[in-house]
């Protein structure tokens, strides 16, 4: 007998919001925390060039030395975040008021192991997250914890040039086992690495690698990815041993690629772009490298160092679910730079059927439904949409409130398509909107690019009272959660 059609979100659907330690915590030098790679992302005027997408997360060796030697000459917004470190009780109470079932956050590796090289963890750092998780539990909120979200001890970049060194595998496994043992009674849901395919966009951001210190950046990206695959698999295996009922996932930035035309060569290029995007979960779900990547490596003269034992490790450490972020779709075509476009954050080929955000990101809710179907068909394990949201310039009105109907409209349209995908048969665990509280932008280190349901009074240079003010979307999302996605407003 055919299974009954699902009509809506499951009763145990995990509604919530997502953040990252390097974008909210602040207190970069308190309680023994070491410097991270994100602590080196200096603020640069995002409007100085031709595009508002003036990404600031890349750091080269010359800049790193300058920032280390002359920190007072620069602004480092990710060092202050929104001071979640001192405001976590207030913030979690607001999440609880919205009705969050889950709160996605990350742990700062250098808050636990300041240089990454210590034999024993920093107790003050561990205690901070104990307090955060206890506060979540007080309100019945399940923590969803990312172990590595675009920050690692800067010492590991200086000593090993980040993840191009195999030495980091054992250091990460030590870190992961420390987290599992400490929080085994407090955290059930884990993600090993945030958006691992970011290595193809910024090696420094995703892997702590100084690109000017490697001979072949593309080869280095895949070498770093391989070592992260092994580290992730070892972490998954350890997590299942230490916390038998834990659910541990991988994560990518999902990019749905359309062919520009029905020209067969354009269609083939769209397929190749999709393969580059799904390469990461292909390895982490199936425990082996896909054949299409073997051809890609051969044709692009990419040679990565692999040990025979690695393939066994990959098989032993496959993930329980696939987590992903979704912000936009891309358009691709058969052209000389097609390979370079595949996997990048934004495509130079614009889709005439889509509206753009203030940061020129195409808005495409239907592509989310397409992606959900494709990913579930491909892996047949649960999916978790752990980032999705609209960055916009919010303004405090004369009435002291923040009216953000554009954000409500954006999220509502994506929730509608999630519901349609569930009707299609997709098993979706939950939905955590990105930046549920305003935070420092990953790409541009801005505060003025706001995603949250909660406004934080702070400008791009760190000035402000840090007062938290619920936006209109706060009350709207509260009703969405209370109705389990049925009440989306007019």
From TrEMBL:
Active-site residues, Swiss-Prot/TrEMBL: 387 (nucleophile)
Similarity-based family: Belongs to the glycosyl hydrolase 1 family.
Top-rank lineage group of the source organism: Bacteria
Keywords, sorted A to Z: Glycosidase, Hydrolase
SUPFAM superfamilies in UniProt: (Trans)glycosidases
Keyword Hydrolase: yes
Species, as recorded: Neobacillus rhizosphaerae
Protein name from the UniProt record: Aryl-phospho-beta-D-glucosidase BglH
Recorded GO MF terms: 6-phospho-beta-glucosidase activity
Organism taxonomic ancestry: Bacteria, Bacillati, Bacillota, Bacilli, Bacillales
Enzyme Commission number(s): 3.2.1.86
Gene field: bglH_1
Annotated InterPro entries: GH (IPR017853), GH_1_N_CS (IPR033132), Glyco_hydro_1 (IPR001360), Glyco_hydro_1_AS (IPR018120)
UniProt keyword Metal-binding present: no
Enzyme class: hydrolase
Family matches, as Gene3D superfamilies: Glycosidases
């Amino acid at each position: 007998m055919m299974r009954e059609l699902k009509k809506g979100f499951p009763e145990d659907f995990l509604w919530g919001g997502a953040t990252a330690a390097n974008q909210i915590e602040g207190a970069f030098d308190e309680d023994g925390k070491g410097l991270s790679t994100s602590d080196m992302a200096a603020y640069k005027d995002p409007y100085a060039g031709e595009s508002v997408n003036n990404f600031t997360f890349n750091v080269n060796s010359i800049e790193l030395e300058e920032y280390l030697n002359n920190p007072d000459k620069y602004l480092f917004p990710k060092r202050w975040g929104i001071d979640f470190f001192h405001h976590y009780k207030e913030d979690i109470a607001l999440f609880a008021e919205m009705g969050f079932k889950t709160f996605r956050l990350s742990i700062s590796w250098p808050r636990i192991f300041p240089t990454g090289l210590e034999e024993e963890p920093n107790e003050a750092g561990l205690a901070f997250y104990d307090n955060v998780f206890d506060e979540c539990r007080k309100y019945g909120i399940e923590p969803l914890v990312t172990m590595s979200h675009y920050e690692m001890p800067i010492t590991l970049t200086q000593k090993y040039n980040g993840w191009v060194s195999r030495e980091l595998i054992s250091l990460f496994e030590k870190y992961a086992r420390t987290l599992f043992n400490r929080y085994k009674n407090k955290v059930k849901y884990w993600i090993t690495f945030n958006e691992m395919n970011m290595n193809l966009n910024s090696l420094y951001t995703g892997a702590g690698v100084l690109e000017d210190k490697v001979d072949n950046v593309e080869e280095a990206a895949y070498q770093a990815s391989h070592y992260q695959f092994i580290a992730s698999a070892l972490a998954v295996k350890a997590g299942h041993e230490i916390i038998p009922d834990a659910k541990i996932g991988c994560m990518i930035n999902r990019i749905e690629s359309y062919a520009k035309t029905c020209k067969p060569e354009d269609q083939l290029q769209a397929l190749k772009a999709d393969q580059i995007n799904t390469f990461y979960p292909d390895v982490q779900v199936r425990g082996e490298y896909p054949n299409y990547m073997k051809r890609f490596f051969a044709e692009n003269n990419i040679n990565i160092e692999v040990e025979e034992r690695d393939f066994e490790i990959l098989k032993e450490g496959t993930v329980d679910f696939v987590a992903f972020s979704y912000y936009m779709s891309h358009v691709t075509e058969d052209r000389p730079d097609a390979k370079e476009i595949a996997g990048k954050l934004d495509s130079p080929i614009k889709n005439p059927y889509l509206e753009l955000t203030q940061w020129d990101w195409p808005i495409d809710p239907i592509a989310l439904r397409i992606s959900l179907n494709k990913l579930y068909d491909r892996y047949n394990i649960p999916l978790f949409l752990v980032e999705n949201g609209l960055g916009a310039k919010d303004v405090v009105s004369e009435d002291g409130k923040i009216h953000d109907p554009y954000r409500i409209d954006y999220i509502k349209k994506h929730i509608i398509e999630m519901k349609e995908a569930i009707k299609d048969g997709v098993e979706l665990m939950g939905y955590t909107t990105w930046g549920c509280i305003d935070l420092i932008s990953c790409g541009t280190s801005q505060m003025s690019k706001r995603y949250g349901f909660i406004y934080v009074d702070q400008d791009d240079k760190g000035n402000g009272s840090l007062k938290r003010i619920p936006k209109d979307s706060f009350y709207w999302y509260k009703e969405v959660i209370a109705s389990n996605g049925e009440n989306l407003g007019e």
